[in-house]
Amino acid sequence: MKWYQKPVAILIVLLVLFPALGMSSCNTSAVITSSVTTPKTTTMQTESTTESTLPLATEIETTAPIETTSPETSATTIMQTVSGGVLRVHYLDVGQADSEFIELPDGKTMLIDAGNKGDGSNVVSYIKNLGYSTIDYLVATHPHEDHIGGMAEVINSFAIGEIYMPKVASTTQAFENLLTTIQDKGYSINTAQAGVQIAPGINILSPGVGSDYDDELNDWSAVISIVYGSKTFLFLGDAGTAPESTFSIDADVVKVAHHGSRTAFSNALYKEWSPDIAIISVGMDNSYGLPDEEVLQGLADVGTKVYRTDENGTIVLESDGSTVTLKSIGVTISLALPTVTTKPTTAAPTATTKAAETAVATVAATTAAATATPAQGDDGVIVYKTNTGSCYHNDDCSSLSKSKIPITLSEAKAEGLKPCSKCNPPQ
Amino acid sequence: MKYIIDRFEGDFAIVELEDKTFSNIPRIAIPLEAKEGSVIDVTIDVASTDERSRKINKLMGDLFK
Fold first, then answer.
1. Which 23-62 residues of chain B touch chain A by CB within 8 A?
2. ipTM tops 0.90
3. Burial of A169 (0-12, 13-18, 19+ CB in 10 A)
4. Dmax of chain B from CA atoms?
5. Do A173 and B39 touch (CB under 8 A)?
6. C-alpha to C-alpha distance for A423 and A397, rounded to whole angstroms
7. Nearest CA to CA, how far is A172 from chain B (Å)?
8. Fewest CB within 10 A of the end CB: N or C in chain A?
9. Residues A152-196 pLDDT 10s
10. Is A217 close to B24, i.e. CB distance below 8 A?
11. What element of type H or E holds A52?
12. Three-state SS for A369?
């Protein structure tokens, strides 16, 4: 058959088929469609073959811990693990308030909230003691004073990169002071809303675009996820169950919303998130009865390990992207996370199990890395503080008769405690 | 004297006082319609004070020998 005969032959076949098919089907357009789709089908097959030859890309997409509703956030949800890179999250003990400082694996820093007004100087000195002079990403989850009170002092003390806040106001002088400080420094504010990516792997999940929580400032909280390798840290601010149910996530560590208040807790949501660790930022003997008993019970039901700033002080967690380890008051505890059983979407279960088994070794490595930063060198030295005093002490000091709280030397310094003049503790 | 409601926690409103410090006030001690951000104006009701003073003094005058 010659080249010009080929289309002719097809035409003839079509002309023959056309009336034949037309008889079997009363819809002629269907016949035309089917004849036209023949080459298209081939193309589609090629596309699907291309897809199946890239199972990795598909897997990364589907196993990413975040499954947000907005497509633009799912594309770059993961912060790629860096060899020797550590994500370190400090849940600062700021009493009945909130503040989390994050050392990112690429050396950048992030601060979510800054405690009450009186906590500002402590937050500043804590971060400075870690050797930083810049905060690359600053987030004010919402304008309540227990979250933004110390932030003006932070802005006055560090070079600030980008600032993120939900576009919602408070009438307090504390909030006005924060705004005028930002203005005086010549910074501007990014609106914190779902779909905004702060950096690769750092996403804002709530408030949703167009959401209106009226005067419920807690519900306007910027909710942030940090995904490093296979580990996800979720920061809920004070968000209540309404905004909390607008996103879907598989979390490893959750900063519990609203200091453990029942209004921000849902058993169903925590079952879905299935965190291994929950952090409650709450003041000792606070007037509000927080955390609520049913929240603690609910977390226990899900099998989540709970750490509280009122009982544990500042809590530091580290992740190499495959495990999460706890480092608190100078003692590093390896957590064999039950990732495999509780996470149906985990990408490589065998690798994760292995990582969990070798967590002790990982801890040793990260601790060694930690000593490289200033002020961390004192982490192995335990001193003691009291409930009220402004000094830290040796184990046997007579000043410790009423209360005796173990603390690392670096933490004691970070809290601004002075060495006791009686017992002469290490400095 | 004015103070601003920063937030509500449990049975308390946390208010910002004029000296920029914060304090707990029982929720029942502020108007029901107050919201976060509401500015509360605290004034002395002189007429009511005088009236109550007269009433109590009269009651005491009747009771004391």
1. 24, 35-39
2. no
3. middle
4. 52
5. no
6. 6
7. 6
8. N
9. 999 999 999 999 999 999 999 999 999 999 999 999 999 999 999
10. no
11. helix A28-52
12. helix
Q: Given an 8 Å threshold on Cβ–Cβ distance, is B6 in contact with A218? A: no
pLDDT value at residue A70 = 43
pLDDT digits (tens, 9 = 90+) for A213-232: 998 999 999 999 999 999 99
If you average pLDDT over every residue of chain A, what do you get?
A: 76
- Angle, helices A28-52 vs A5-24, to 10°: value is 120
Cβ distance of B7 and A145 shorter than 8 Å: yes
- What whole-number distance in Å separates Cα of residue A280 and Cα of residue B10? 17
Give the whole-angstrom CA distance, residue A235 versus residue A113. Answer: 11
Give the chain A residue whose CA is nearest to the CA of B27: A288
Closest Cα partner for A265 from A250, A254, A276? Answer: A254
Mutate to test the interface with A, among B5, B6, B17 (most CBs of A within 10 A): B6
A290 in B contact zone (CB under 8 Å): yes
Q: Residues A408, A381: contact at Cβ < 8 Å?
A: yes
Q: What tokens were used for A363?
A: 């801890």
3-state class (DSSP) for residue A406: strand
Alpha carbon of A426: minimum distance to chain B alpha carbons (Å)? 36
